[in-house]
């Protein structure tokens, strides 16, 4: 069953059901980049999850597309933290993040079948607090319960061509309609298409629904906003971009995070 999307027990969840997820996800979304040549950088998108360990201790997890990190060969990437000054202004304050260990061993964990990477990170306090709860991720039943269909609108955040919404480094918010059918069961259809223009730099961005998004006429809106998935690919045929993105269902992000708690495999 789909978990409630609000992990703070003090407010009344029913009173918060219409709250817009957009600003929360904007605050939790970051640019990931690495130099790839003279004056050129490889760019991707990531977002932060509040995903406590099995013992209940706090943990902040960076989620992105697996190929984003695969295509950044150096041991460190730059993660685009943002800092708010006392007077309310914001500035872009990126910091290095080590993603490879000795002998270039990846420090992230990848999903076994989907292009999803997760990695525990030490984030500035502001970003650790902005990380979205794991319960906000859709599970394998959410699309059925919310009666999601072809033509429904979803929102996405990212950094197309490395472009941000402003000098403070906030992500760009886009909207697109679901271009696939059927959408479930996700075991048979682990990804779906979203009709919007995708560019390098968008990969790894969250795809989500809030009450601001359009739905088919006569279909009731869900009770809660939710993260539907993660953008993992742009559809290109030959040299032609089709204006479609491939989204992996959020249930696979849940599975990837669960792998962080799995005991390490013994070496052969």
TrEMBL record:
Single biological process term from Gene Ontology: proteolysis
GO molecular function: peptidase activity
Record's keyword terms, sorted: Hydrolase, Protease
Pfam families, A to Z: Trypsin_2
Name of the protein in its database record: Serine protease
Species, as recorded: Brevundimonas albigilva
